[in-house]
Amino acid sequence: MMEEPFALGARLSACAAFVREGRVLADIGTDHAYLPIWLVRTGKIPRAFASDINEEPIQLAKEHIRRYGIADKITAFTADGMAKIPPDEVDDIVIAGMGGDNIAGILEGAPWLLSPRYHLILQPMSKAERLRAYLYAHQFFILEEKPVCEANRIYTVICAEYTPEPFHYSDFDIYAGRLDKKNPCAAALLQRQAGILRDMADGCAVRHDDKGEKHFRALAEQLLR
Ligand SMILES: C[S@@+](CC[C@H](N)C(=O)[O-])C[C@H]1O[C@@H](n2cnc3c(N)ncnc32)[C@H](O)[C@@H]1O
Fold first, then answer.
1. In this model, does residue 6 exceed pLDDT 90?
2. 7 alpha carbon – ligand 1 mean position (Å)
């Protein structure tokens, strides 16, 4: 039985908005597969790969894909990270709902992503700064970043692309990202990040690391300016 397309929550909607029209998607850590189902059923993309490291979510994903009548358009399978994704068949990669370190680890496992062909759409649940540090260190330029408030939590969604030319970036870019302070969700995210930086400064003070303390306090202030 075919069901009507459903509404995505704010977080997955923000991820969906970054997926380019007509491109092929790989959704890594798909769980329920709502994102690829929504994108295919609304006609924004023609097909997708949906993978998850665990068998249980993949069974659920397959059941949802069948229910929406698009088993010929979404290929679902278990895999660790990008392991079974065919590099020449995908354009946009979504990795959402995991920690920033886990996302960076998944990217690290797929060196073929170092190509401007792909758009990476990444939604870290934590440690966004560690993910940005990984992206910048590997010449992934952050094209855009969108803050999202959902169910009393605030997230950022990052859209990045590999650039063959190295570019300059600073610690400020790693902590502030490309968030627009005028957006209330972004302002709240930056406040939280500034708090983390102040804690790091306090840690330096305890260790009598004056240079580190100054550095992190200055960054925290810069973030809120
Ligand atoms: C919290 S769910 C997020 C689901 C969906 N992406 C979303 O944002 O709503 C995280 C999913 O990532 C999967 N996962 C965690 N590490 C993974 C890895 N290395 N490779 C593939 N999937 C992974 C988990 O099994 C889980 O289903």
1. no
2. 20
Q: What does the pLDDT look like over 155-182, one tens digit per residue?
A: 999 999 999 999 999 999 999 999 998 9
**Type of residue at 65:** I
Is 211 exposed, middle or buried, given 0-12, 13-18 or 19+ CB atoms closer than 10 A? exposed
What are the structural domains of the chain? 10-169 (3.40.50.150), 180-225 (no CATH)
pLDDT at 5: 75
**Which single residue is written with the structure tokens 């491109």?**
23
Residues 6+ apart with CB under 8 A from 95: 28, 29, 103, 106, 107, 120, 121, 122, 123
pLDDT at 130: 97
What atom in ligand 1 is closest to the CA of residue 83?
20
